[in-house]
Design brief:
two-stranded antiparallel sheet, 2 strands, mainly beta, 0% helix, 64 residues
Amino acid sequence: METLRVQDLRIFLQGTNLFTITDYQGLDPEIASSNSLTLGVDGNVGYQVYPISQIYSIGVNIKI
């Protein structure tokens, strides 16, 4: 059985939207709207608005 000879090894961890510091009062730039006057306004107009998700990514790059 051959031994693997690794030339390069890279392990990475990435996080997106891990925490948000805000005094939420109904304005969120991630909320879409068809009216430019209400863009980013959470008016609770019959559809559910979900908070921004936290995303964790991990990966490994191996060069043999």
